Amino acid sequence: MYLTAALFLLGVLWKVYQLAQAPQDRALRAVTACLACTAVSFSTGLPAENHALNSMAVGASSLVSNVPLMAAVYFLLSFYLYSATDRQRASRRARLEAIPLTVTLIVITVATIATPVGVRGRPYGSADLHVPQVAVFFIVAQLYLVYALATTASWTGRGARLAQRPATIGLWLTAGSLTGMAAANALRTAMDLISWNGAAVPAVLNQSAAMLYALAVPAFVVGLSYPAVMMRVAGLRIWLQHRRTYQQLGPLWELLHEAFPQDALHRAPTAGTLREVLCIRGVHRRYYRRVIECRDGLVRVSPYLAQQGVQDGATPQALANRLPPALRAQATGEPASCQALAVALPREDSIDADAQQLVALSDALGTC
């Protein structure tokens, strides 16, 4: 539990740092407030904090736990408002959404104060719902959660219909989880009404609510994390591709670098340092530099390739056979009467397609 609290604290501090960098970002402000309120609500469940709150006022821990929880749901709703609509419309709607939150907080605060001390502040599982003030506390709080969660799910679904993968998958998971939480709170509201009237609560209602929570909470976490995780997976795939291509270009690059060392794109620190090797972005930098250096070298030697009889559209193997003698002719200072020749050109206009043509030439050099 304390580890989770520490993670919450780190998350809040990180969001506060991000907010300090972009104080005008209202969506980020809403996320930061949501996370902070969730952390406060969670911390009231810690034994030390729970005891401290109840020692100040009987039942205070229950109230202090529910108030930030509902505020967190409100700020979550605000985040989707600011993300899905223009700033002016989102601000107006956020102010309107603050009205039911404020009414709810006033009602549950009054209900807590009016509750007899002997039954005040009990956890939900052991609360005496035959006491009207206790029943009002839980029913009103859960009705607000049903409304706010259902509204947030609706806004999330709208965003999912407009988004593209992988964001749309994460948004649909989030919308489904929020709907499940709203349904679970609706079932709990029904259970509270039944208990308030003195009847026995059917076991199926309690089991259904528990099952919805058990499914919805992990789905919510997965839905929020899915787009970021998929972006990291895609980034890792590109990283591996660039690293593999960089290594495959080795034979061609070494041959051309020896002939044209002046074409090396020097920078500090150099590519051989440990920091450059371990840095994730270092792989991409070295990949682009090697592709550019190989292409520059081929442009320089292309007149000599033309003198060797190489034609446009020559195969990688034909180029590989003619490249060493062309480089030797260039190194000896032989005049090149032919014009520069475009060799190993890709069909698509992209650096990755260019790299694949260069890789084919590099592989062919290994068979010479």
Task: Describe the structure using short key phrases.
single chain; 368 residues; 13 helices; 0% strand; rod-shaped
Number of strands: 0
| Helix count, DSSP H or I runs of 4 or more residues | 13
Distance between the termini: 64 Å
As residue ranges, the low-confidence spans are: 268-278
The whole-angstrom Rg is 32 Å
Molecular shape: rod-shaped
Overall average residue pLDDT: 81
> How many domains in all?
2
| Main sheet specs | none
Question: Which structural class should the secondary elements be placed in?
Answer: mainly alpha
Percent helix range: over 70%
Instruction: Report the sheet-strand fraction.
Output: under 5%
SSE pattern, N- to C-terminal: HHHHHHHHHHHHH
Your description of this structure?
- The protein contains 13 helices and no strands.
- The chain has 368 residues and is an all-alpha fold.
- The protein folds into two domains: 237 residues, no CATH class; 118 residues, no CATH class.
- About 3% of the residues have low confidence.
Short summary:
This protein is mainly α and 368 residues long. 77% of the residues lie in helices and 0% in strands.
